[in-house]
Specification:
Among the domains are: 206 residues, von Willebrand factor, type A domain (Rossmann fold, 3-Layer(aba) Sandwich); 88 residues, no CATH class. It contains 19 helices and 11 strands.
Length: 432
């Protein structure tokens, strides 16, 4: 929890000003530098403090002091249109999203009005085993460079469709960074570009150092959402929490132990009663870390997805569905909480023909479903896929490292070829 460091008279002024600001959600909330906010604004701070006991306030965790976020607690319950405006869809398509997937982001925006990122800027993020894109080439870099590129891409996405996203750095980012928390997409189109540039400046100026105190930030996030949880559930809304990290949870002193792991699990269990979708985005391949987060499913009863970087995720999917180019836009959707049952199957087994059809409707939109009904013969489905691929960009395939369509038709045909010839063709491609 945080400490309110204003005199009583000034607290009264803050509350009075906050009360006035609640009349209009679009009013920009002034920031009080001396207010160490657990929430993204004075509004959320005052509401949160009303729910805290004196002991909570005086003995809890201390959060980063500086905030560059314009998101109020009301953002959690402010529904947005499920249909993207034409220029919003075009922006996403310019970023490489296929049309259908771009339009799906409107639905996601309406159901998940806010995404919270806990951004790990601990010292281990300087380890040089990350992977990122430079143009159309995947290169080796530090974990921090990979995370910086990820945050920048999501900031641009949030600005493109006004999908409110809050980014909170795990540790103090150092004197060169202007803020410990910043948001994109919450200020509307007028401020979108300024928000993106601020996000990029902060990430570029941040100096990764220190431990991995994830647990404290999860408790703070739970406090924010709990304030409006009932209203969110009534409206069918959820918040997305993305843990972008490379390490096991530690104390503020940098110690990892069974006790620290247990406290982390307790914090996550607090989220189980709240309208939250949890995504763990890992920036490491260290076996101990990967096993810990992959094992969360067995300990929690909540919506949860654990993701690697898009190159390693692509390699897992390639094992079963070699026809799919698991390109960056597809991975981005999963990182920001987009849910589709097909994603859960891609790295588990080969999709059947009905599932391939469903996947294509997701990629290309309802126009694909109108052009080719679900009960059409397989050759008709393949012809329709070929026609729609002609309208889409090529993307870097993280496995073959070549620019390719999202779907390799030859591989897809061979996956469903029958008889001895089919088996031969699949064996030939499996050896590649």
């Amino acid at each position: 929890m945080s400490h309110l460091q204003l005199p009583v008279e000034q607290n009264a002024e803050v509350i009075e000003e906050v009360s006035a600001s609640l009349v209009d959600d679009d009013i920009q909330i002034s920031r009080y530098p001396s207010l160490r906010a657990t929430a993204a604004s004075p509004v959320a701070e005052v509401i949160s403090l009303e729910k805290m006991s004196v002991d909570d306030i005086t003995s809890g965790v201390t959060s980063p002091a500086r905030s560059h976020s314009q998101v109020t607690i009301q953002s959690l319950v402010k529904t947005k249109d499920a249909k993207l405006i034409d220029y919003e869809a075009e922006r996403l398509m310019d970023m490489g999203f296929p049309r259908g997937l771009a339009l799906e982001m409107g639905t996601t925006r309406s159901l998940f009005p806010v995404r919270f990122w806990i951004v790990d800027n601990s010292g281990s993020m300087l380890t040089n085993d990350g992977s990122t894109l430079r143009g159309n080439t995947a290169i080796t870099c530090t974990r921090w460079a990979e995370l910086e590129e990820t945050v920048n891409f999501h900031a641009e996405f949030a600005a493109a469709v006004e999908a409110t996203s809050v980014f909170r750095l795990l540790n103090d980012p150092g004197p060169r960074a202007e803020s410990s928390e910043f948001s994109v997409g919450g200020g509307g189109a007028k401020f979108a570009e300024d928000e993106v540039q601020a996000a990029k400046r902060i990430m570029r100026a941040c100096q990764p150092t220190g431990p991995t105190p994830l647990t404290a930030h999860i408790y703070e996030f739970a406090n924010r959402v709990s304030v409006v949880a009932d209203e969110m559930m009534t409206k069918g809304l959820k918040a997305v929490l993305i843990l972008a990290t490379d390490g096991l949870p530690t104390t503020r002193q940098g110690l990892n132990s069974q006790a620290a792991n247990d406290e982390f699990i307790r914090a996550l269990r607090q989220l189980q009663t709240l309208p939250i979708w949890l995504v763990v985005r890992l920036f490491t391949d260290e076996e101990e870390v990967v096993e810990f987060y992959n094992g969360l499913d067995a300990q929690l009863e909540m919506n949860l997805e654990v993701l690697d970087d898009f190159v390693n995720e692509a390699k897992e999917i390639y094992t079963h569905n070699r026809w799919l180019n698991y390109a960056r836009p597809i991975h981005t959707c999963r990182e920001m909480g987009y849910q589709n049952r097909i994603f859960d199957l891609l790295d588990e087994r080969p999709l059947n023909q009905d599932e391939v059809y469903e996947f294509c409707v997701m990629l290309f939109g309802v126009a694909f479903a109108k052009a080719c009904l679900r009960d059409a013969n397989w050759s008709k489905v393949l012809d329709t896929i070929e026609r729609f691929l002609g309208r889409e960009q090529k993307h870097l395939n993280p496995v073959t490292k070549k620019m390719e369509p999202l779907i390799n038709l030859k591989r897809l045909k061979n996956q469903f070829a029958t008889g001895i010839l089919g088996k031969f063709k699949r064996a030939s491609f499996d050896s590649i």
